[in-house]
């Protein structure tokens, strides 16, 4: 089974070019929520991920509740982007002290190493479970788990406990790094066949041409783009230092050029439901 691409495990021909375009960070701002939904409904994205600790989580869950056919995962969140973000754990702070900084807040993204050096696995699991349960308690059905600013959870044991949670809840897991991918494939679980793309790594000024080139050059197998669309209105620009990345993602995803390229290149864009089915077997 290691000789097969993940796309083949999902039932696609060997030469199929299969792409997941996932809109991360729903729940961060209402501009993000609206842009992500639009990027799926009229653009080339097919799935999303919601942060249940974010300030617009209620708004995001409401939009998802109105769209039962929209595929989405839980964007497991242990860090906040900046010190200005007031995102706290869903678990009582006294129960997850190892996940908090000196001020009793989630660590900022630039202090990921400090978090990972002290985070206790049982407290990580408790917080992850609370974030998944928040979605289920809203009457929604996610397809997968992925991570905010911690690729593959940042530690092997965090990825392992997330994989165990996914098995319990009947979900897939976004696995991107080589070691995690090897371990998943040994179990016959589909994961991306190629290095992932995080849209924050793409230059804003040349992004449309870069995305177009990536679509033209997309290899056979399963690939994934983690994109971060936002309408980036005046209010969200005041609090989001990455708004240019997000606005440029949105503009490309909903553009006629993007749709034409996907069609012309014969690319199959999927969501995580196919992976969820395979991971749940």
Short overview:
The chain has twelve helices and ten strands. The protein has 281 residues and is an alpha/beta fold.
What is the rounded distance between the termini? 15 Å
Helix content: 40-55%
CATH class: Alpha Beta
Q: Tell me the number of strands.
A: 10
The CATH homologous superfamily is termed Glycoside hydrolase/deacetylase
Describe the fold and architecture:
By secondary structure, the chain is an alpha/beta fold. It has a single domain, classed as Alpha-Beta Barrel (TIM Barrel). The strands form two sheets. Strands 1, 2, 3, 6, 7, 8, 9 and 10 form an eight-stranded parallel beta sheet that branches. The longest helix is centred in the middle third of the chain and has 17 residues. The model has no long low-confidence stretch (mean pLDDT 96).
């Amino acid at each position: 089974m290691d000789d097969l691409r993940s796309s083949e495990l999902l039932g696609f021909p060997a030469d199929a070019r299969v792409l997941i375009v996932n809109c991360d960070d729903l729940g961060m701002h209402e501009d993000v929520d609206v842009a992500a939904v639009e990027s799926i409904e009229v653009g080339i994205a097919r799935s999303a991920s919601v942060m249940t600790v974010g300030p617009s989580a209620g708004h995001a869950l409401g939009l998802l509740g109105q769209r039962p056919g929209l595929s989405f995962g839980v964007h497991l969140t242990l860090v906040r982007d900046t010190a200005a973000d007031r995102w706290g754990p869903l678990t009582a702070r006294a129960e997850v002290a190892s996940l908090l900084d000196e001020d009793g807040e989630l660590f900022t993204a630039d202090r990921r190493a400090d978090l990972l050096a002290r985070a206790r696995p049982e407290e990580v699991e408790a917080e992850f479970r609370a974030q998944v349960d928040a979605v289920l308690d809203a009457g929604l059905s996610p397809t997968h788990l992925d991570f905010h600013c911690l690729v593959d959870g940042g530690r092997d044991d965090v990825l392992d406990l997330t994989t165990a949670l996914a098995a319990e809840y009947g979900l897939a897991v976004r696995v991107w790094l080589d070691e995690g991918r090897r371990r998943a494939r040994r179990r016959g679980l589909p994961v991306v066949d190629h290095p992932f793309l995080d849209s924050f790594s793409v230059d804003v000024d040349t992004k449309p041409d870069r995305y177009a080139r990536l679509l033209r050059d997309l290899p056979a197998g399963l690939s994934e783009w983690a994109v971060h669309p936002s309408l980036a209105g005046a209010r969200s620009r005041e609090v989001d230092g990455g708004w240019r990345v997000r606005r440029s993602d949105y503009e490309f995803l909903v553009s006629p050029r993007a749709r034409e390229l996907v069609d012309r290149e014969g690319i199959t864009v999927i969501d995580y439901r196919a992976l969820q089915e395979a991971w749940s077997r």
